[in-house]
From TrEMBL:
<comment type="pathway">
    <text>Lipid metabolism; malonyl-CoA biosynthesis; malonyl-CoA from acetyl-CoA: step 1/1.</text>
</comment>
<dbReference type="Pfam" id="PF03255">
    <property type="entry name" value="ACCA"/>
</dbReference>
<keyword id="KW-0547">Nucleotide-binding</keyword>
<feature type="coiled-coil region">
    <location>
        <begin position="11"/>
        <end position="49"/>
    </location>
</feature>
<dbReference type="GO" id="GO:0009317">
    <property type="term" value="C:acetyl-CoA carboxylase complex"/>
</dbReference>
<comment type="function">
    <text>Component of the acetyl coenzyme A carboxylase (ACC) complex. First, biotin carboxylase catalyzes the carboxylation of biotin on its carrier protein (BCCP) and then the CO(2) group is transferred by the carboxyltransferase to acetyl-CoA to form malonyl-CoA.</text>
</comment>
<keyword id="KW-0175">Coiled coil</keyword>
<feature type="domain" description="CoA carboxyltransferase C-terminal">
    <location>
        <begin position="35"/>
        <end position="292"/>
    </location>
</feature>
<dbReference type="GO" id="GO:0016743">
    <property type="term" value="F:carboxyl- or carbamoyltransferase activity"/>
</dbReference>
<comment type="subunit">
    <text>Acetyl-CoA carboxylase is a heterohexamer composed of biotin carboxyl carrier protein (AccB), biotin carboxylase (AccC) and two subunits each of ACCase subunit alpha (AccA) and ACCase subunit beta (AccD).</text>
</comment>
<dbReference type="GO" id="GO:0006633">
    <property type="term" value="P:fatty acid biosynthetic process"/>
</dbReference>
<dbReference type="InterPro" id="IPR029045">
    <property type="entry name" value="ClpP/crotonase-like_dom_sf"/>
</dbReference>
<keyword id="KW-0436">Ligase</keyword>
<keyword id="KW-0963">Cytoplasm</keyword>
<keyword id="KW-0276">Fatty acid metabolism</keyword>
<dbReference type="InterPro" id="IPR001095">
    <property type="entry name" value="Acetyl_CoA_COase_a_su"/>
</dbReference>
<dbReference type="GO" id="GO:2001295">
    <property type="term" value="P:malonyl-CoA biosynthetic process"/>
</dbReference>
C-alpha cells in the first residue's frame, strides 16, 4: 500500500471513492457506470491540476517516497541477463552501490547505481543508499572494465549523499569520490547518468560526470539537502521548505540552468505509481542518447563530456 503525501490527499480520497463505488456496483449488481465515469473525469482533471503545479518541496517528498523505484527495479524492467558484480578488490563489497553488465536492445552495457532499501531491514543492509568509499571504488572498477571492452556506461543516481561516518573517512571517502570524478572525465566510452530519486552532494556527483545527464521529473539534484541548507543558513532545519525553493534543486530548475540535458516525464502521481510505464520512458531516452553518442569516436566522446561541463555556469567579464 502506497504511503500518501500531504499535497495529494484530495486525489487519494477521490480514488478511494471511485473504488468504493466499483465495489458497490459489482456486489449489488447496480449500474453505476455513469457516476463512476463522472468521478474518473474529475479525478483526471484534479491530477492535472495538482501534479502540474507542484512546489519544490512537494517534489522533494515525491523523490523520497519509500516506494519510489530503485536502481534494481529499473534494471529488472529495462534490461535482460543482468549479472551483478561485487567488491572493489581493495576492502569489501558495498551494497549501497550495485553494478554489473546486462543487455540493452541486444547490446552489452555496464550499469551502476545507488541502491537504497524500501523496508527497514533492507535499508540497514544498503546503508540507506549512502555509499562507503569501497562502493565508489567498485563503481570505478566497473567503469574501467567497461572502457576496456568498449561498453557504454549507465549510472542511476539515487542517494542522500556519501556516508559521512568515521569509518568511511578513515578509508578515504573524499579520495574515492575525487578519483571517480577524475577518471570519469577521461573515459573513452559513452556515459549516461539519470537521477531517479535524490541526487545529494558529492555522493551523487561521483556517478554524475557523464556525457548526458537526465533527471526524472520529480527527482532532485543538489549540493546539500534542504534540511542541511536550512540548518546552515538559518540555524533551523524546519525551514527546509523555504530552502528547497531557494536552492533550485528540481529538474525544471536544473534544465533551465543547463546543468542537465533533459527531463524524463513521470507517470501521474510519481514513478512509484507505475514502474513499468516509467521504465518505458527511461528506455526511450536511453535509446535516443546511445544512438547519438555511438556515432562519436573515443576522442570526440571525451571532448563532448569536457565541453558539457565547461559550459555549465555563468560569469561576467570586468
Amino acid at each position: 500500500m502506497s504511503k500518501n503525501l500531504a499535497f495529494e490527499e484530495p486525489v487519494v480520497k477521490l480514488r478511494e471513492k471511485i473504488e468504493e463505488l466499483k465495489d458497490i456496483a459489482k456486489n449489488a449488481e447496480v449500474d453505476m457506470s455513469e457516476e463512476i465515469e463522472t468521478l474518473e473525469t474529475r479525478l483526471r482533471q484534479l491530477e492535472i491540476k495538482i501534479y502540474s503545479n507542484m512546489e519544490p518541496w512537494d517534489r522533494v517528498q515525491v523523490a523520497r517516497h519509500p516506494e519510489r523505484p530503485t536502481t534494481l527495479d529499473y534494471i529488472q524492467e529495462i534490461f535482460t541477463d543482468f549479472i551483478e558484480f561485487h567488491g572493489d578488490r581493495y576492502y569489501s563489497d558495498d551494497e549501497a552501490i550495485v553494478g554489473g553488465i546486462a543487455f540493452f536492445e541486444e547490446e552489452p552495457i555496464t550499469i551502476i547505481g545507488h541502491q537504497r532499501g524500501k523496508a527497514t531491514k533492507e535499508n540497514i543492509r544498503r546503508n540507506f543508499g549512502m555509499p562507503h568509499p569501497e562502493g565508489y571504488r567498485k563503481a570505478l572498477r566497473l567503469m574501467k572494465q567497461a572502457e576496456k571492452f568498449g561498453r557504454p556506461i549507465l549510472c542511476f543516481i539515487d542517494t542522500k549523499g556519501a556516508y559521512p561516518g568515521k569509518a568511511a573517512e578513515e578509508r578515504g571517502q573524499s579520495e574515492a569520490i575525487a578519483k571517480n570524478l577524475f577518471e570519469m572525465a577521461g573515459l573513452k566510452v559513452p556515459v549516461i547518468s539519470i537521477v531517479i530519486g535524490e541526487g545529494g552532494s558529492g555522493g551523487a556527483l561521483a556517478l554524475g560526470i557523464a556525457n548526458r545527464i537526465f533527471m526524472l521529473e520529480n527527482s532532485t539534484y543538489s549540493v546539500i539537502s534542504p534540511e542541511g541548507a536550512a540548518s546552515i543558513l538559518w540555524k533551523d532545519a524546519s525551514l527546509a521548505k523555504q530552502a528547497a525553493e531557494a536552492m533550485k534543486i528540481t529538474a525544471q530548475d536544473l534544465k533551465e540552468m543547463g546543468i542537465i540535458d533533459g527531463i524524463i516525464s513521470e507517470v501521474s502521481g510519481g514513478a512509484h505509481r507505475n514502474v513499468t510505464a516509467q521504465s518505458l520512458a527511461i528506455k526511450e531516452c536511453l535509446i535516443e542518447s546511445l544512438k547519438e553518442l555511438s556515432l562519436l569516436s573515443a576522442k570526440e566522446i571525451i571532448d563532448d563530456r569536457y565541453d558539457k561541463f565547461r559550459a555549465i555556469g555563468q560569469y561576467t567579464e570586468l
